[in-house]
Structures are given as structure tokens and as C-alpha cells.
Specification:
Layout lengths: L4 E8 L5 H19 L1 E7 L4 H7 L5 H10 L1 E4 L13 H8 L4 E7 L12 E7 L9 E5 L2 E4 L5 H18 L3 E6 L7 H13 L6 E6 H10 L6 E4 L1 H15 L6 E5 L4 E5 L16 H13 L3 H17 L13 H18 L1
Helix pairs in contact: 1-9, 1-10, 1-11, 5-6, 9-10, 10-11
């Protein structure tokens, strides 16, 4: 099929296992697109330590400009130094482009045995403020202060996103997650905004849970939840916790969404210990790319990729080691490609 539509996408391969998993994803997307009349023009940029070595900037100006032009980016994991070094590339990009909604669906893959089968949760996380605003200073030696920023604007628009998604996709419940019993002003403001938005969605059940209780309730019975609506820090923690229900961080996708731009990325880190060893699982970034395809209104291509990924898991013959298999990155992506080709022939 001749290509009918070409999408310009900024590609940030990342470091560690990033280039391996992003390379696998690009192969799969190009094959799926070739069958559905969709093409991709990849604008590739480094970020983080590698970019600094090349350009003297952790996020090159050309990368910012590319995202501004293309309005969509696919990003592999980038190492963030702990306790020092440069600021998180993820957080910096989210703040730069006002990507206020972090969307992380947590859904079981067929054939993969876990302690919690048939999970289908969504974490909707405010992405630009809270403690991630990065406002820290040392008052006197040995005393450091970090400011938690919660605003009416930030809380209202993330609540609006969560409830709009629930209505559009037939989700039944939204739980606002908070610690307003202790942080009465900041988390109290967040709750007031959530309650106000909830009034416009009578068909969606609205509840509130304290964050520490939520952690216990998730482990006891994750099925009681549908959409978790959270501030920034709570959402970061809870999305990792929820990923364990479906097999780990190597499987869970993520999207950072704003009014103008969107960046799609895997939830997991750069795993430098296995970089270059053909061991990394590209599933998280593949499923993030599926979210990107839906964002680009390429539903047919998205469904082709998702169906192939699920079929490979359903068969369970070519899986990476993190999910109990013996195959590598290349073999897994080859299996996804072969599955798509087989499905196309049958169709």
C-alpha cells in the first residue's frame, strides 16, 4: 500500500537500553504503517549526558525546536543522576511544554501470569507542579526546604482531563488521591477542585482516598479502582506500584499531554546494567507508541501493533527475561513483526 499520510515525530532514543528499545519500536511502527498507509519522518535527537557531550546542552535547543514544530515526540529512557547532576530530562520537558497530564494505563497482557489477573487501571497524574516544581533551597547548612506547589489551575485541568476521559471511554469511577488530612491547604485545594469538576459528571462515581490507605487498598484489592486522579508525586509512586500488578515497569506505557504538544515515553528507567546485551523488553515503549498512534488519529495502525504485541504474549514463546522468557529485544520485536505479517495475510 502506498503511503498516504506521513507524520513528523521527534525521536529521543535515550541512553542505556533506550537506543535498543526505541530502535525496535521504530521497526515495528514502520512495518505497521506500511500496511496501513502511514509513514513516519523521524527527527532524532540525543538528550542528557550524551547531548551535553555533543552540544554542551543537556536538552539541545534544536530538540526543543523540533518538538515545537512536530508537536509529538517518542522518547526512550534517559538516565537521571541521583542526588546531584543535571535536572531530570523528563521533568524539564514536561514543564517546558506544559504537558500537564501524565496518562498511564495499567492493563494486563494476555497469557502473562501475575498475582492479579485482568487488571485495567488508569493513573491520571498532574504533571507540572507539586514537589516536582523543583523549588528547593538550603535555609542554613543542614536544613533544606522543598516547596510543594498546588494551584487551582493545575488541579482543575487535571481533574477535567480525568473526567473527560472517563466520560468518553465509559469508565465508571474516579478516585482523587490525597493527603488532605495533613496537608490541609495544598491537598485541600486539590480536592476542592476535583469535587467541583466532578459535579459536571454525575454518571461517573467520584470518591476520595488518602494516599497511604490507597497503597494498602491497591495491594488488597486493586479491582475496586478504575481511574486514579493524583497530584504529581503521589501519581509517580502509585503508577510504579500499579505496574507490579501486570508484570513490572517493562510493560507499562506513558503519555505526557498538553494543549499543544505530547511526548510518549516508557515508564521504566535506562537500565544501564543490561544496555547493549539484547536483553531489554521493548513492550513499554511499544505500547507508548500505540498511545501516540491513537493521539495521531491512526487507530488502525495502533490496533495492528497492539494486537500483535498481545498475540506474542498470548502465545508466550518469544518473551524477554523480565517476564519469564529467554528471548532478547531483537527476537521479541521480530516476533511482533511476524505476527503482524501473518495477521495481514489472513485478512
Amino acid at each position: 500500500m502506498a503511503t498516504k499520510r506521513t507524520h513528523k515525530v521527534t525521536l529521543i532514543p535515550g541512553d542505556g537500553i533506550g537506543p535498543e528499545v526505541s530502535g525496535a519500536v521504530v521497526r515495528v511502527l514502520e512495518a505497521a504503517g506500511a500496511a496501513t498507509g502511514v509513514g513516519f519522518e523521524w527527527h532524532k535527537f540525543a538528550a542528557g549526558a550524551e547531548a551535553f557531550e555533543q552540544t554542551g546542552e543537556y536538552i539541545p535547543k534544536a530538540l526543543y525546536e523540533s518538538i515545537e514544530r512536530n508537536r509529538v515526540a517518542l522518547k526512550g529512557p534517559v538516565t537521571t543522576p541521583v542526588g546531584g547532576g543535571f535536572a531530570s530530562i523528563n521533568v524539564t520537558l514536561r514543564k517546558k511544554f506544559d504537558l500537564y497530564a501524565n496518562f498511564r494505563p495499567v492493563k494486563s497482557l494476555p497469557g502473562l501470569k501475575t498475582k492479579y489477573p485482568d487488571i485495567d487501571l488508569i493513573v491520571v497524574r498532574e504533571n507540572t507542579e507539586d514537589l516536582y516544581a523543583g523549588l528547593e533551597h538550603e535555609i542554613v547548612p543542614g536544613v533544606v526546604q522543598s516547596l510543594k506547589i498546588i494551584t487551582d489551575k493545575g488541579s482543575t485541568r487535571i481533574a477535567q482531563y480525568a473526567f473527560d476521559f472517563a466520560r468518553k471511554h465509559g469508565r465508571k469511577k474516579v478516585h482523587a488521591i490525597h493527603k488532605a488530612n495533613i496537608m490541609k491547604l495544598s491537598d485541600g485545594l486539590f480536592l476542592r477542585c476535583c469535587r467541583k469538576v466532578a459535579e459536571d459528571f454525575p454518571e461517573v462515581e467520584y470518591k476520595e482516598h488518602i494516599v497511604d490507605n490507597t497503597c494498602m487498598q491497591l495491594v488488597l484489592n486493586p479491582y475496586q479502582y478504575d481511574i486514579l486522579l493524583t497530584e504529581n508525586l503521589y501519581g509517580d509512586i502509585l503508577s510504579d506500584l500499579c505496574s507490579a500488578f501486570v508484570g513490572g515497569l517493562g510493560l507499562v506505557p506513558g503519555a505526557n499531554l498538553g494543549a499543544e504538544c505530547a511526548i510518549f515515553e516508557a515508564v521504566h528507567g535506562s537500565a544501564p546494567d543490561i544496555a547493549g546485551k539484547d536483553m531489554a523488553n521493548p513492550t513499554a515503549l511499544l505500547q507508548s507508541a500505540v498511545l501516540m498512534l491513537h493521539h495521531l488519529n491512526e487507530g488502525e495502525t495502533a490496533e495492528r501493533v497492539q494486537a500483535a504485541v498481545e498475540q506474542v504474549y498470548r502465545e508466550g514463546k518469544v518473551l524477554t527475561r523480565d517476564v519469564g522468557g529467554q528471548s532478547g529485544t531483537q527476537a521479541f520485536s521480530d516476533a511482533v513483526l511476524a505476527t503482524m505479517e501473518t495477521a495481514a495475510v489472513r485478512a
